[in-house]
Amino acid sequence: MSGRAVPAGTTGGPAETSGAHLLDRHVGFVHALREAGLPVSLAEGLDAARALEVIDLAERESLRAAYAATLVKRPSHRPGFDTLFDLWFPASTTGRYGSRPAAEDLDPQTAALPELRDRLAELLAGTGDAAGELNAFARAMVERFGRQPAGPGRQNWFSFPVMRALSPETLMARLLAEVLAGRERGGLAEKVARERITRNIERFGEAVSTDVRRRIAEESGIEKIARSAVRPPLEQLDFLRITRADLARLRREVHPLARRLAARLTVKHRLGHRGRLDFRRTVRASLSTGGVPLSTFNKPRRPHKPELVVLCDTSDSVASFAHFTLLLTYALREQFTKVRAFGFVDTVDEITRFFVPGADVAEAMTRLTKEADMVRFGRTNYGHAFERFAERYGDAVGPKTSLLILGDARSNYQPPALETLKRLSREARHSYWLNPEPVNQWDSGDSVATAYGSVVPMYECRNVAQLAAFIEDLA
Question: Which InterPro entries does the entry link to (predicted)?
């Protein structure tokens, strides 16, 4: 790697032009991306290093673009990438912009708060050309308001005091009045202005957060703040810890997975089974060999969509996972000839009726929790749920059925009903168990994962990536 100038602000001064220093930064940055869950291979890291040889390293955004082009694979990975890039290659370092006025006639360290809010209003009303000034103003405001004492000789940095002091959201009405200047409210002009101002408010908040993280990294170390600054990519979020907002984003991931799962199970259904003898083709081919059928031909099997039965643990201990699996069940209904879904806590009820085509998934889940009969005493009991399922719905499982069980296999020390599960598994064409807990927690406490896994193949399924890997392994 050549010894070009390091991007301004990345090391504490432009005098540092060491290629070795930049190489250390590169290695640390790539390692941080991997730690955050972004898939960066060794070859891609080398591609990024080669890209740095053909760009102007003094142009920070060119550096960002080169890294993004070589290391980022999915749009969902970009926010985490940008957060880590700003930590490893910051736009400034403490001392270079801390006392810099945001405007020629305004010193952000001594100006009164109304003057600062007036300046912020000017920047929020501006166009994209003012982005640099907005970022510089954000850094100055962090220096002014973001510092909080944390003991003798120590200080912490926070975004909240900055946003509370300046309250950019409260400037919206004033800015709209100035931009519209007497024009009619509620029209296209107001909509465009509101969107631009909202976008600039979000940019200001992001710039404040970025500078706070940068200052913490300078004092505590980049590696330490990097581990907590970036959430894992969507496909690696733990099902047991996802939020309602994450579930909304996961809906886009579910339908492709449902199609792939249906395709894999269909392949397994057909694998090893040839169609019936095609008598006409066999006789016709034998004419070339004197009527001796040296080659036989079979009729292709008709495409077949397998039937699916889903047994889902809906108890509070796996509530987030249950929400995801119900999303998956809803998507699977479009891919299989017949899908029947059953939810259980300590007894079981069929919940297929809540997921009719066209139903709103969130509304279906709300109805399910209120109307479905899945709870007797409120403590998870897999054994009783399996026995009750076999008693009431045993005819749902047959030679064309794939049985999919989703749950953590924690049964509150109740009898596991292994014989009942064995009978259900024998009657099904395929059976699989997806467990949202890490493997190293199986069999701890009231878990009977290994016992159930000896009857139905059990797979760790903590996130979308593991679910996708499970589907691929079905081939």
Answer: UCP010256 (IPR011195), Uncharacterised_CoxE (IPR008912)
Share of the chain above pLDDT 90, in %: 22
Q: Distance between CA atoms of 140 and 158, rounded to whole angstroms?
A: 13
d(CA 210, CA 85): 10
| CA–CA distance, 475 with 467 (Å, rounded to integer) | 14
Give the Cα separation of 10 and 28 in Å (integer): 13
Alpha-carbon distance 147 to 140, whole Å? 11
**pLDDT value, residue 102:** 44
Token pair 């890039």 is at which residue? Answer: 85
Q: Which of the four pLDDT bands, split at 50, 70 and 90, describes residue 275?
A: low
Q: Do residues 391 and 430 both lie within one domain?
A: yes
Task: Tell me what the mean pLDDT of segment 198-215 comes to.
Answer: 88
Kindly give the pairing relationship between strand 458-460 and strand 430-435.
parallel
Reported as a single tens digit per residue, the pLDDT across 118-128 is 889 888 887 65
Global model pTM greater than 0.85: no
Kind and range of the H or E run holding 338: strand 338-344
Whether residues 244 and 216 share a domain: the answer is no
CA–CA gap between residue 93 and residue 11 (Å, rounded): 8
Secondary structure (3-state) at 429? coil
Could you give the CA distance from residue 221 to residue 446 in angstroms, rounded to a whole number? 41
Q: Are residues 168 and 315 in the same domain?
A: no
> Closest Cα partner for 405 from 379, 436, 441?
436
pLDDT at 363: 75
CA atoms of 381 and 375, how far apart (whole Å): 10
Range of the domain at 152: 113-228
Q: Burial of 310 by CB count in 10 Å (0-12 exposed, 13-18 middle, 19+ buried)?
A: buried
Domain identity same for 272 and 398: yes
* β-pairing verdict for 401-406 and 307-313: parallel
Total domains present in the chain: 3
Strands 430-435 and 401-406 come out as parallel
User: At residue 205, what are phi and psi to the nearest 5 degrees?
Assistant: -60, -40
**Whole-number Å distance between alpha carbons of 233 and 457:** 28
Instruction: Please state, as a whole number, how many other Cβ atoms lie within 10 Å of the Cβ of residue 357.
Output: 7
pLDDT number for residue 393: 93
What is the predicted pLDDT for the residue at 409? 93
